[in-house]
């Protein structure tokens, strides 16, 4: 019986033996009060050391699976493995409306999946080959040596103090007046946006945003039961005339904008329009949630203040920032800069949701930021993504016919094909192992059927060229060109 | 003007210079098209190298704060710093009911705060001095060298594959039949419990639990608008007769229990009662959320199966586990084991909330668990907390009069004082620099005014003795003994 045990190389043998005996007890193959082989017998049977067996028996005793009778040996405890009659619940029936809607709006579950060998333009995640792992390790080891034990125990809901201080300075460096404001650290933009809506909105409230807009934001707004009113976006950002019209339609609780390298269009709202937008919303007293999306990636040219900076001493802008768009999204660090009173409430909601964001991750990020490694990284990343953007733009112009290309940068290109349904195009391209994101998922109405987003950050130049030319060929066929 | 800049030692000088010039531009102290000193002049003014200045200027150019005219020098860009008229929102008025309730139920904000020099029995966090930082570092470096770049980019909502596989085995080792079930990784128990309620319950639903129970769970149940029906807990766990009575009172959507070292009482539900509880709830078809709280800490004695194991092949138990109670709570790793269909919905809700739990933290934890370091740690931790528990129990018996002590282990002692109000007692003790958690916060009704929880995990033996004797003295005065 025991000799059936297969010892594997990659795990401590005492753990393997312990787990093996445990599983036999749990399966009822070893009965209560049955005597186990002596450590000597077991050791010789398995060809392992006697110490290993004794160590395994000691753990089993600790965990209550065996007991030792002095001078008599080791015996199986009565662990009462009798399970009760099968009781099954049809969980499909138990899910509430929120759960169902979450699943329905879960794009990852319902969109075309990547398969090996495909060229995928779906992702707008940063290229991990640009990450400098050595610098990241250095930051980890540095924080560990300074305050490792502290970081590994519970922290504060608002976040890791040094990171908050750093980010306050960082926002001041963007021109934001931080007096009367504070920062809370979140698990990325997604949590930040969800916390803000959780704290401020009620089902049925109206919310104003660009159309198209970030699909995760659309999902979260829908999950909060909000009425989403989208305003068309043009080359200078949101259409201010349409905005004024929309504002007459009803009372708005809040608004949401992505002024820099807007997702999905890549449009940068001009400084003039930022100020105008601010003043229009001021007139109606509608607070602004500003999504700092890709702001870190902005290439040279004129510096553009975030809307939060235009607000000066005013407290009407809630800025949600995240580094995940450019660096280490796997560690999930974002932040909300807002009025102190609001931050206090956000802190309580955050604590009720998950206590706090990993202190380890916050501490490493802080170290990485303040060491200057981030500055070096962002300089490199900006240059590389800029070059890649220009290359992708050229390919798009060369290969994809009959199109309008919006935006001026970022990690993706947004194309209007005109008269071609992008889901039909996707189906055709998919047959040729090329996939992308159909643009309709970014629209808050039923529009955008003729648009697509092409993320290129993790695709090689060779594949960009190849993939775009396939998209172009299939578009030509569909468009009858 | 530039010579006012103070150069600090702990930061790269080019970053300091860049930030200094940036802030002068943002403050309007440097005007558009103004010429900056040449790199040579600036270097000599600040007594730094010319390269440093050139590097800072290069960054400023990248970020759009300056422009360079060939052969003429470096000039300030027009960054349009004009902020708009002040617009303030009274955020206090904007917070919704959920935000307000979160704040109101936020114990951290409203309970007595620790001050330097106090002996605090409030925490039941693990003692970080038991953490082995070297082994943790080893796990980090190991994962980094194997798949560092991958871990730092986006991961999956369900969690890090290797950790999920490990935990499925881990649950099987507890006697749980995992067929037809799956695991999702969460940011600790708090998020796990919140996700489950988010997915299954509607406002106004009835939920059944022990009374008293985990105060964070009470908060989350209240935030979900549930009607909480508490069943008294005795030495063998929840009172089954009272449970049967309660079940007649209405329809229950779900139930929540902490069978091992129950928080706050420290009671372990007997194997017989676990089976009985399971069968009673089966009769009414009320699913069970089992809180694995402190199960990892269970000291020797008979092994007790979790309720999830009693269910055998049945899918009616949702097990929410967390290592945060014993190890590295700062990195926030928990998990939910449940029916596969339910896991699918939980995954979509998790994705909508924060995309996924830090892949870095999951990967380190996985490495730490599978290396055997966790086994070694838990053996040590069990012994140390057991000894400490026994010491604290002895002190409580010696010093605190007129009391009933519940439970049999864990990191805290729960005391019923009888006829003494624990908040009055806290006030008196606080004057003598001793604080603890008044027990009423764990009750779902208005009971427990005469109870208190004493967490000892992070308190030295000397302070346990001293603190308990002060509590005893003050209790005697209040009780007139």
From TrEMBL, chains A, B:
<keyword id="KW-0663">Pyridoxal phosphate</keyword>
<keyword id="KW-0804">Transcription</keyword>
<dbReference type="InterPro" id="IPR015422">
    <property type="entry name" value="PyrdxlP-dep_Trfase_small"/>
</dbReference>
<dbReference type="InterPro" id="IPR036390">
    <property type="entry name" value="WH_DNA-bd_sf"/>
</dbReference>
<dbReference type="InterPro" id="IPR036388">
    <property type="entry name" value="WH-like_DNA-bd_sf"/>
</dbReference>
<dbReference type="InterPro" id="IPR000524">
    <property type="entry name" value="Tscrpt_reg_HTH_GntR"/>
</dbReference>
<dbReference type="InterPro" id="IPR004839">
    <property type="entry name" value="Aminotransferase_I/II_large"/>
</dbReference>
<dbReference type="InterPro" id="IPR015421">
    <property type="entry name" value="PyrdxlP-dep_Trfase_major"/>
</dbReference>
<keyword id="KW-0238">DNA-binding</keyword>
<comment type="similarity">
    <text>In the C-terminal section; belongs to the class-I pyridoxal-phosphate-dependent aminotransferase family.</text>
</comment>
<dbReference type="InterPro" id="IPR015424">
    <property type="entry name" value="PyrdxlP-dep_Trfase"/>
</dbReference>
<dbReference type="InterPro" id="IPR051446">
    <property type="entry name" value="HTH_trans_reg/aminotransferase"/>
</dbReference>
<dbReference type="Pfam" id="PF00155">
    <property type="entry name" value="Aminotran_1_2"/>
</dbReference>
<keyword id="KW-0805">Transcription regulation</keyword>
<keyword id="KW-0032">Aminotransferase</keyword>
<protein>
    <submittedName>
        <fullName>PLP-dependent aminotransferase family protein</fullName>
    </submittedName>
</protein>
<feature type="domain" description="HTH gntR-type">
    <location>
        <begin position="11"/>
        <end position="79"/>
    </location>
</feature>
<dbReference type="GO" id="GO:0008483">
    <property type="term" value="F:transaminase activity"/>
</dbReference>
<dbReference type="Pfam" id="PF00392">
    <property type="entry name" value="GntR"/>
</dbReference>
<keyword id="KW-0808">Transferase</keyword>
